[in-house]
Specification:
This protein is α+β, with helices and mostly antiparallel strands. Helix content is about 25%, strand content about 25%. It is built from five helices and eleven strands, in the order αααααβββββββββββ.
Length: about 210
């Protein structure tokens, strides 16, 4: 059977570590509960190191387990993934592990139609970076602003997306008794998820007799 060079190097590493600390096999045996013969065979390469033995030695030496087995240094931790586009939305993966919790940055386009609420197993956490986001959760309907956070069980029917344009009209009249009304302004802001605002002004003249 082929020998593992990584495991073969563990024995030498254990011996060097013990000698630097100035300890004996008997002292190490008392600290770990491992017999002197087993420790000797570990250091000479005659005994294959197991996780149980290595954990006991790591606790005795107060060093990380990686230091005993000589694990390679971590590589580049930066995540470089390609954006995913689904239904007009852009998802940027922020994690690269295939399982467990997954994190995404999602860009939701303005003016998308309201979708059907769906449910599935899991739990969702979201944070709005900018603009506004509409969240429909069961019978509730929320508009989330930048800096707001929401978390919910995804077994509850839900949908989230851009905020549809909202029109607010304000009418202003100025007149004096017995006179014609003055022209008035009709104004409405339209706000989208992107945070842009459009203010339209229309001047219209209305005439009637008081």
């Amino acid at each position: 059977m082929e020998r593992d060079p990584v495991l073969d190097a563990v024995g030498l590493r254990l011996r060097e570590l013990r000698r630097r600390r100035g300890g004996t096999l008997a002292e190490l045996s008392e600290a770990t509960g491992i017999s002197v013969s087993t420790l000797s065979r570990l250091e000479s390469g005659g005994r294959k190191p197991t996780l149980e033995l290595l954990l006991a030695l790591a606790r005795a030496y107060q060093v990380p387990l990686d230091q005993l087995v000589g694990a390679p240094p971590p590589g580049d931790p930066r995540i470089r993934t390609r954006p995913i586009r689904r239904g007009g939305r852009t998802l940027i993966p922020l994690t690269r592990q295939p399982g467990g919790i997954r994190a995404y940055k999602m860009i939701v386009p303005a003016g998308e139609p309201v979708g059907e609420q769906k449910s599935h197993e899991g739990y969702e956490w979201m944070y709005v970076l900018s603009g506004r986001l509409r969240l429909r959760l069961g019978e509730h309907d929320f508009v989330m602003k930048a800096g707001e956070v929401a978390e919910f069980d995804t077994r509850t029917p839900h949908w989230f997306g851009s905020v549809q344009p909202i029109y607010r009209a304000s009418l202003k009249f100025r007149w004096t008794a017995g006179c014609w009304p003055s022209p008035w302004d009709y104004r409405w802001p339209r706000e989208s998820f992107s945070g842009w605002r459009l203010l339209c002004k229309c001047r219209m003249a209305i005439s009637w007799m008081l």
